[in-house]
């Protein structure tokens, strides 16, 4: 007699943005730029040398070393996996405790992986200015307190002081820095002082490798050692590993793209200041119910719900794409506000 595990019967399918037919995709916080032709060719030449009949390295030590060098940390602190999403699930296997704490509105995958692990999700909603609430009240017995900074979909980063206060409870903290390359500061150095901290990073946003599914976790040597134990060997494919190494060898290009996106973010923010929240990420949260209007013009943005009903999250695209978005938004504002 077989039975479906009860935690699975409660598990909704992970919420992913629906694929919509659009000319301009500003809905998934992707980097608008694929590698320029010359670099893409160079990467493909390197990929063509990889023997596909052979397994990748059991553990991606080489990429971990390159990331550690990039961060000024030791390779012992870095764990590579298939996207930081996967690392959310793996991190939850490391700690004990029967609940996790999230602060809505935030990234949906925390809820998904917690439910998958069969632990309860306690939501301490963000405050009026999207600041962290009293998550410390639920620190006791927590398997993890999730802090997303900069937060998706609100775009604000949490002050370092506040993050330290949460760490001081001693509860495990999973700090998601998926957008940190667009922010003023990182808190990754706190892994040197706090064994209860795991920081998640990704190649999907600033590094432009969303299609390669590559992410990494950073933790103290001791915590990283435990996290390594729950990672199956041979899990990251050799093509993605090469792509990640390639990007770290072309940091000037990556920095150029980041500066471009920051410039465009500023332009969009200034133009629609009245309707936008300040952002330290590659997107803007806007108080405009323009999702359907934009879609009819071939522009996909993310429609938000719940407390952010009537808001959209707009990924910063290429200049031409942003120009089209801006003129469509002006038209929307003219039509609805007058
Ligand atoms: C995009 C995003 C990620 C990245 O996930 P990957 O699995 O590495 O692509 C992680 N956290 C947040 C909050 C995100 O928005």
Q: What is the global morphology? A: globular
- Average pLDDT rating: 96
Order of helices and strands: HEHHEHEHEEHEEEHHHEHEEH
User: Whole-number radius of gyration?
Assistant: 20 Å
Number of helices: 11
**Class by helix and strand content?**
alpha/beta
CATH topology of the largest domain: Aspartate Aminotransferase, domain 2
Unreliable stretches covering 5 or more consecutive residues = none
Outline the structure in words.
With 338 residues, this protein is an alpha/beta fold. It has 2 domains: 19-36 and 252-336, Aspartate Aminotransferase, domain 1, CATH 3.90.1150; 52-250, Aspartate Aminotransferase, domain 2 (3-Layer(aba) Sandwich). The protein has 11 helices and 11 strands. A 7-stranded mixed sheet has the order 2-8-7-6-5-3-4, with helices on both faces. Strands 1-10-11-9 form a 4-stranded mixed sheet. Helix 3 runs parallel beside helix 8 and helix 4 crosses helix 5 (109-116). The longest helix is centred in the C-terminal third of the chain and has 21 residues, at 251-271. The protein is globular and about 60 Å long. The mean pLDDT is 96.
Write the layout of secondary structure elements.
Layout: H1 6-9, E1 24-26, H2 37-48, H3 61-71, E2 78-81, H4 83-94, E3 99-102, H5 109-116, E4 120-123, E5 142-148, H6 160-167, E6 173-176, E7 197-202, E8 215-219, H7 221-229, H8 238-248, H9 251-271, E9 283-286, H10 291-296, E10 299-303, E11 312-315, H11 319-337
Parallel strand pairs: 1-10, 3-4, 3-5, 5-6, 6-7
Antiparallel strand pairs: 2-8, 7-8, 9-11, 10-11
Helix pairs in contact: 3-8, 4-5
